Sequence to fold (231 residues):
Amino acid sequence: MADNKVLIVEDDANLLETLKYNLRKEGYDVVTASDGEKAIEVARKEKPDLIILDIMLPKISGFEVCRILRKEMPVPILMLTAKADETDKIVGLEIGADDYMTKPFSMRELLARVRAMLRRTKMAAAPPAGEQSSIKIGNLEVDTARHRASLSATVLELSPKEFDLLAFLVKNKGLVFSREQLLEKVWGYDYAGDTRTVDVHIRWLRQKIETDPAHPERLVTVRGTGYKLEG
Fold:
């Protein structure tokens, strides 16, 4: 765990210190930033394994920081919001965040999320021995060894969690999974209540792999159950 570097971006000094203390106690190497400009600078320099990113920041908002960094690096991003506004959550996910938490939150839950996100990243980077690393379904190809997906030989721009979700569904083509099952299998933890995270990632994937995202033929909804990827 000590080789995992976490960047915390938070302008509330008390919360920043609390997060830093608890993450270091868990054995993580922690770097920090208290505004958007500094966050981008530190991320580019330190190349963290995960970013905890507040939305409301001085100078540059967390949304803009996420948008900029997502284009430059595949680092998992956990966004923090002080609002219960669904719009903030959805916007964060759609610009590339992998997950979000609403303040106030349980430190125990945040640490569980961090562990799960880092574990999933490592698993994606090192597929189990004997597992087929490249899978093709029609013109869609997912290469887990290279962490790359392509459609008709054109590489898709996917966030880390979009890739994880697509890779899981491709490996299990034809099988139906509920939102709760996808959260457990792809995000790596039990998620009580809000499953909007899955819906947003499914919608985002459809925009990238479907000819007509409004009428998906590949990544389909099974009414009352969940989602599946057609073979």
